[in-house]
Amino acid sequence: MPASEFQLIERYFARLGTTRADVVLGVGDDCALLQVPADRQLAVSMDTLVEGIHFFPDVDPESLGHKALAVNLSDLAAMGADPAWVTLALTLPKVDEAWLAGFCRGFARLAARYQVQLVGGDTTRGPLSISVQVHGFVEPGRALRRDQARPGDQIYVTGSLGDAGLALLAAGGGYDAGERLAVLQQQLDWPEPRVAASQALRHLCRCAIDISDGLLADLGHICEKSGLGATIRQAAIPLSEAVADYVHTTGDWSMPLAAGDDYELCLVIPAGQQAQVERIARTLAVPLTLIGQMESGAGIHCVDAAGNKVADLQGGYDHFRNA
């Protein structure tokens, strides 16, 4: 006989993640009871992953558990918040305990790394989907809000861009990535939330955003909220060898500029901080690249190495426009 909903909760979710002193009451009651520090604001974000839209049906459940939490931790990193608690709503077509065990391993391993405790959620039957809500703490007035950019501020990105998009293109048969496919697939299935980079750099930043829908789309949100434009130096955009080869072969810059699913950070930092930024990046061992600057006006303009404007690209992924 398949396990009941409450048996599944007790078996897989009751003690998932680390144990925190600020959790007065966690999984197992109608509500969790949580203690927010008196000198912090609560940052909350939620993402839903749906089979066939965000992940393939045959995805490794352990990587899916990791990614379900990682994409939410990435939102906290973008706000400059420290991770604390998480809730999980899991809709399953059937009880598959081997699948659940793998999912929970991936989820729990990442939760332990960032001292996150699962404090509640729901388990229901239906088409496979995963909704995760994260909670974090941020000093009052220090959140990295999208509306704080100023003209002349410099734009940085962590890591490299386009790897996840190229992995998706290769998986669909649209590109032969050869021996590099495994590395690209790692970037797609096991994204690394840039929590440490956010914590190290947030005192220098005006605002930030995580790159989930593509650089142009996500930077565009900062531009819109701040009432500014931006210029991006296309040649400065950090590319892995695989994406650099793809761009060189095809001339297609949409992969690093608009493909999305990278979960790197785009950070807006006042001019004059470059030496500090580079020093911090070395201690983190995380690539951090200056790619452009915020400007008066509207829109995002990409320029080539000579400073000439290149053709505009469409923005990133939109669930309804791209349906």
How is this structure best summarized?
It contains 10 helices and 12 strands. It has 323 residues and is an alpha+beta fold. It has a 6-stranded mixed beta sheet with strand order 8-10-7-11-9-12, with helices on both faces.
Describe this structure in words.
The longest helix has 19 residues, at 61-79. The chain has two domains: 5-138, 60s Ribosomal Protein L30, Chain: A; 146-303, PurM-like C-terminal domain (Phosphoribosyl-aminoimidazole Synthetase, Chain A, domain 2), CATH 3.90.650. The strands form three sheets. It has a six-stranded mixed sheet, with helices on both faces. Strands 3-6-4-5 form a four-stranded mixed sheet. Helix 2 (61-79) packs parallel to helix 6 (195-201), helix 4 (163-171) crosses helix 5 (181-189) and helix 6 (195-201) runs antiparallel to helix 10. It has helices at residues 5-13, 61-79, 97-113, 163-171, 181-189, 195-201, 215-226, 241-250, 254-258, 274-284; strands spanning 23-25, 33-34, 41-50, 82-92, 117-125, 129-138, 154-158, 207-211, 229-233, 264-269, 288-295, 299-303. Helix 3 links the parallel strand 4 (82-92) and strand 5. It is globular and about 65 Å long. With 323 residues, it is of the alpha+beta class.
Round the Cα radius of gyration to an integer and report it.
20 Å
Oligomer description: single chain
Q: Estimate the global geometry from the Cα principal axes.
A: globular
Instruction: Count the domains.
Output: 2
* Strand neighbour order, sheet with most strands: 8-10-7-11-9-12
- The secondary structure category is alpha+beta
Highest-level CATH class of the largest domain: Alpha Beta
Fraction of residues in helix: 25-40%
**Number of helical segments?**
10
Q: Architecture of the largest domain, according to CATH?
A: Alpha-Beta Complex
Binding site for substrate: 54, 261, 317
Binding site for Mg(2+) 5: 213
Domain PurM-like C-terminal: 150-299
Catalytic activity: thiamine phosphate + ATP = thiamine diphosphate + ADP
